[in-house]
Write a structure and sequence with these properties.
7-stranded mixed beta sheet; alpha+beta; globular; single chain; about 45% helix; 9 helices
Length: about 300
């Protein structure tokens, strides 16, 4: 009987896949969908297992599938706005097609869902952060003194700073973290850069846009924050250095300040043992790019 039920589940899932599948990534969202009678799954773990079986079968047939984050609240609002029946499986398919065009997605590449789902959630957070910071930068409007668009100028400056930080970094893979404190939330953006055999740094475009927008917001609003770079190269100790974001500028942190930051628990303030094989140092000189512009918007 259970075998028959599983085959039925897979048939239901196949009907709702039209190149893109909207996934309920956690148990809370799964329980929210169970209010619809047409959503016939009883257990989140079984749902993910059957979904993975279908995805593997599609991949074996050479069929490409895109994974999207399915949010039950967004789905309910979509159905209310468009006047479609949330109980109808076709409505879920239609909503998922919209997700494929506008929402965060990742391709199914054969890796286990246990690996892909965190990546999908990270992509959703990255897109939400980019949209949020872009909206705030746009709202800053033009400078009352010179008429320059404040948000656009800050983004251009942040992009220039990021280029300078990458260009002055020692050889190796790069891991950058930018933090901007402010109401209502502290924004954190992470950027990974792998160095190719020719010395060039490969960046994910979406990650770089989000990172630049968060840095730009900190610069434009003169919010407190920080930026830390970590480089890793074979046969050498990891190097860690950073800057303090203050009054619209990047101020270099001393090696001792970087060491203290890395050896303090952010949640409790307690000291933690230093990480072995890490060299804490002062950052390279970025020149005039790191200082606040003479004209303050």
């Amino acid at each position: 009987m259970a075998h028959t039920d599983h085959r039925t589940m897979r048939r239901v899932l196949r009907r709702e896949i039209a190149g893109t599948i909207g996934i309920l990534t956690d148990d809370h969202d799964f329980r929210s969908m169970r209010r619809y009678r047409s959503f016939t799954f009883d257990d989140h773990e079984t749902y993910l297992h059957q979904l993975e079986t279908v995805l593997r079968a599609r991949a074996a047939q050479g069929t490409h599938t895109t994974l999207a984050l399915f949010d039950p609240e967004d789905y309910a609002a979509y159905c209310a706005d468009t006047g479609i029946d949330p109980e109808a499986p076709a409505s879920r398919t239609r909503f998922t097609a919209e997700l494929a065009a506008t929402g965060p997605t990742i391709p199914y590449d054969g890796r286990p869902l246990a690996t892909l789902l965190p990546a999908l959630v990270d992509e959703a957070v990255r897109q939400a952060t980019w949209e949020y910071t872009t909206t705030l930068l746009t709202r800053l409007g033009p400078c009352a003194t010179c008429g320059e668009d404040i948000g656009r100028a800050a983004f251009t400056r942040a992009a220039s700073l990021l280029t300078g930080i990458l260009d002055t970094a020692p050889p190796g893979d790069r891991h950058l973290v930018c933090t901007v404190s402010g109401a209502p939330d502290t924004l954190v953006s992470v950027l990974h850069g792998d160095q190719d055999p020719h010395g060039a740094t490969r960046l994910d475009e979406a990650e770089a846009l989000e990172f630049t927008s968060v840095l730009a917001l900190g610069l434009a609003t003169r919010s407190p924050g920080g930026l830390v770079m970590r480089t890793s190269a074979a046969g050498a100790a990891d190097r860690v250095y950073g800057w303090r974001l203050r009054a619209g500028a990047l101020e270099p942190l001393t090696a001792a300040e970087v060491f203290d930051a890395y050896c303090t628990d952010a949640e409790t303030g307690d000291l933690v043992p230093p990480e072995p094989g890490v060299d804490y140092r002062e950052p390279p000189d970025l020149g005039d790019a790191s200082t606040a512009p003479e004209h303050r918007h």
